[in-house]
Amino acid sequence: MSTTAFAILISGLILLQVAGFAAFGFYRQQVRYRALERLEPDLGAPPVLTGATPPAAPDMARIPAWSGDREFVVQRRVIEDGNASVCSFYLAPADGGPLPSYRPGQYLTFKLEVPDPATNTTKTVVRCYSLSDRPRVNQYRVSIKRVPAPANGPDAPPGVASNYFHDHIQEGARLSVRAPSGHFYLNEDSKLPIVLIAGGIGITPLLSILNTLAHRGDPREVWLFHGVRNRGEQIMKEHLASLRDTHPGFQLHVCYGEPSEEDVQGVDYQHRGWLDIRLLQKTLRFGRYEFYVCGPPMMMEALVPALEASGVTPENIHYESFGPASLTKRRAPVSTTVSAPVAVRFSQSGKTIQWDSTSESLLELAEDQGIRVDSGCRAGSCGSCQTRIESGEVTYQQTPDADVEPGHCLLCIATPTTDLTLAL
Ligand SMILES: Cc1cc2nc3c(=O)[nH]c(=O)nc-3n(C[C@H](O)[C@H](O)[C@H](O)COP(=O)(O)OP(=O)(O)OC[C@H]3O[C@@H](n4cnc5c(N)ncnc54)[C@H](O)[C@@H]3O)c2cc1C
Ligand code: FES
Fold first, then answer.
1. Which 3 state secondary structure label does DSSP give 191?
2. Hey, how many other C-beta atoms are within 10 angstroms of the C-beta on 33?
3. What is the value of pTM for the model shown?
4. Residue 34 φ then ψ, to 5°
5. Could you tell which of 91, 125, 147 is best to mutate to test the pocket of ligand 1, judged by most ligand atoms within 8 Å of the CB?
6. Domains of the chain
7. pLDDT tens digit string along 166-180?
8. Which ligand is nearest to the CA of 132?
């Protein structure tokens, strides 16, 4: 063969190889894209409930958040786990208008009117639920776990709001909802690989982050560690397995603390035991990551300090607990001690109490005095304990997630720094 023919043959082979690689890359992208479409189908535009036609594909980022309550209609309910204790609710605005976007990780605040057996009337209950899917223009989704009476107090009433959602909120029900809020969300400025660490139902805000990254085709590594008791408790099992099979950068690590006899290691779950720092150290490759942690207080109180102790910079650890946790968020480092004794006056009840730091918060102090205060999350998220300050000043144990009106404070995370008069 002549040198020219040989050169043409080699060039042809190289071209063929390049075309082959390109075709394979294109095919993989298509498979991934179709899988994502299949996994996260749009439910279509919500029914027009008031006759208003929603504008075509509005830019969610430009739609301002509403203030106060907005009415939503439940479009669909989906049970998400083997125990049937977690239900997703798909919500569309009753006015048929477009929805503002949110940062993946944020939550909605619901105001429910639930029956009150004590008075035979209804009472208002305010609760927060994380958005559990990526932002969509025409619907929000929350996933709610039914909360039973505590194991050590079986005679106590079961969780009010979660059981009300499961038992009474059917398709077509209307709900009062406040706009998305919260400071636990995906850091869009960071280019680091991402580690999501969830305990039980704490997976919901992390699902929103994960689905957003998958939908964008974000090329970064994303690790999800999810700790549950066993298969019965694992939510959205198929969705997560499909994401793992189709999203090359996604690593799924499920830990079963109490696997049942039917649960198969390597199929249903990867690790036997509870999610802890040793597992993270053993599994994660050497390098820097952006960590997002959400779970029960015990898990958080162990894991977050352990991450810091193992050298992760605090700025790279984001966390949220679904209720009061002794883990004080670093976002607003404050001292809860006051140098001089201060008096707290509840003007409407006519009571004045000396603050002596034995109460965790002003909410606790008021309740100890038998003063009725609305409360929901007890963690600065739902805004229901907001109270007007008539005089004096308070400090917060953590940055409030709920918006606080000027001249008001959230009693559940506030302590006084001066003599204080509250409109209660
Ligand atoms: C920012 C944020 C996001 C959240 N996201 C989610 C989410 O995505 N999904 C989710 O499922 N949850 C989420 N939560 C938790 C949710 O807001 C509620 O706290 C949860 O559903 C429990 O509310 P409940 O009204 O059902 O229970 P509650 O009525 O508040 O009761 C809580 C517990 O106290 C017990 N109890 C009640 N009365 C007594 C008594 N007298 N003595 C002893 N025990 C008693 C109940 O039996 C129950 O075990 C989130 C919370 C926050 C703050
Ligand atoms: S009880 Fe929810 S903000 Fe205080």
1. coil
2. 13
3. 0.84
4. -65, -40
5. 147
6. 60-181 (2.40.30.10), 194-320 (3.40.50.80), 342-422 (3.10.20.30)
7. 999 999 999 999 999
8. 1
